[in-house]
């Protein structure tokens, strides 16, 4: 997928010029979407709509509508015939596609300002862009403190992909009917709730930071399963705090990509000690080299830079070559690899070596 040149010289120069203006094009696209211009054009369907009608519907002046429409022409979001504008297929997806909306909102609300500090992050190994959101060393303690709209963009992005894989993953995890399951990075408790609904006898322990655990505790009470869901509240990077032990299954969904390779090895080594001899560690991750579509790999490769500048400064969406080395160094073996989970996820079943 990434092993040969695919463009002519002219196409390559065009792509380079697009990248040179990418931040401008991104903000113009958001304005076209959020200020109602694409909606007005979409509602006109194949007949098209004039700039005057767009002005009337959006209550914007001619200058504002005109510069955005002309930018939209260059970005191939709209086309114009007889002074009437219609949406292109790309414009349609910008307006109507949920995945595109979630990615765009995440980029705007979480990443955009912080990406100005990407070079500093790369040079220091610290998330220098995080100062644009709050005064934390990593983003994770601040998730429950973000303004509601900003927090929504983060959680929508975090949940959208993994939620699609949940039904199939549940079936696999509960094939052997685990009695005790450790949910590491349990976040708001969605997986724990799904487990308690799947099996009336399973007991789940959520391992997470105080902010996220507080949200999850309330959700467990609301669902009436607080007697079966327990909490281990700690920073997983603090190696002086032992993991709880005696688990038949350990679950980590889109969690280990939040850590460096050395940290992943440390976490998995301690997971190994927390696991019963015949237990299984289940790891759900989107590996960029396991994607069917180039656009999916692109999204994951760019998401890596969110980790660099905003989240923690030292993690990424991994290639399997790098990730599997961490598994091996932790004294584990991959018993099974399933690359058909949800939209673009891989489920690893790991055992003690």
Automatic annotation (TrEMBL):
Ranges where the BVU-1015-like N-terminal dimerisation-like domain occurs: 16-85
A Pfam family assignment: Dimerisation2-like_dom
A GO molecular-function descriptor: O-methyltransferase activity
Keyword list, A-Z: Methyltransferase, S-adenosyl-L-methionine, Transferase
Species this chain originates from: Chitinophaga dinghuensis
Keyword Disulfide bond: no
Matches recorded under InterPro entries: BVU_1015-like_N (IPR049480), COMT-like (IPR016461), COMT_C (IPR001077), SAM-dependent_MTases_sf (IPR029063), WH-like_DNA-bd_sf (IPR036388), WH_DNA-bd_sf (IPR036390)
Nucleotidyltransferase in keyword set: no
Single Gene Ontology BP annotation: methylation
Protein name: O-methyltransferase
Record domain O-methyltransferase C-terminal: where: 179-316
Taxonomic lineage from the root: Bacteria, Pseudomonadati, Bacteroidota, Chitinophagia, Chitinophagales
């Amino acid at each position: 997928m990434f092993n040969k040149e695919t463009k002519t010289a002219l196409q390559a120069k065009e792509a380079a010029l697009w990248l040179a203006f990418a931040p401008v094009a991104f903000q113009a696209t958001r304005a076209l979407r959020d200020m109602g211009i694409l909606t007005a054009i979409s509602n006109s369907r194949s007949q098209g709509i004039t700039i005057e009608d767009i002005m009337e519907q959006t209550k914007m002046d001619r200058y504002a509508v005109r510069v955005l429409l002309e930018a939209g022409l260059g970005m191939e979001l709209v086309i114009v015939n007889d002074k009437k504008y219609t949406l292109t297929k790309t414009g349609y997806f910008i307006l109507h596609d949920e995945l595109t909306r979630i990615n765009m909102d995440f980029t705007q609300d979480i990443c955009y300002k912080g990406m100005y500090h990407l070079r500093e992050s790369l040079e220091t190994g610290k998330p220098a862009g995080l100062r644009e959101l709050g005064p934390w060393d990593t983003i994770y303690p601040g998730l429950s403190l973000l303004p509601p709209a900003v927090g929504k963009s983060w959680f929508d992005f975090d949940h959208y992909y993994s939620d699609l894989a949940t039904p199939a993953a549940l079936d696999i995890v509960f094939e052997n009917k685990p009695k005790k399951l450790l949910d590491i990075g349990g976040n708001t408790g969605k997986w724990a709730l799904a487990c308690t609904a799947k099996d009336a006898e399973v007991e789940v322990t959520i391992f997470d930071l105080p902010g996220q655990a507080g949200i999850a505790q309330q959700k467990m009470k609301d669902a009436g399963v607080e007697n079966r869901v327990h909490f281990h509240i700690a920073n997983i990077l603090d190696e002086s705090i032992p993991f709880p032990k005696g688990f038949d299954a350990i679950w980590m969904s889109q969690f280990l990509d939040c850590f460096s390779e050395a940290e992943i090895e440390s976490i998995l080594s301690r997971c190994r000690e927390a696991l019963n001899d015949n237990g299984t560690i289940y790891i759900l991750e989107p590996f960029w080299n396991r994607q069917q579509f180039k656009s999916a790999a692109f999204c994951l490769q760019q998401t890596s830079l969110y980790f660099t500048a905003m989240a923690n400064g030292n993690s990424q969406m991994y290639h399997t070559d790098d990730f599997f080395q961490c598994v091996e160094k932790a004294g584990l073996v991959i018993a099974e690899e399933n690359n058909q989970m949800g939209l673009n996820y891989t489920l690893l079943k790991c055992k003690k070596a």
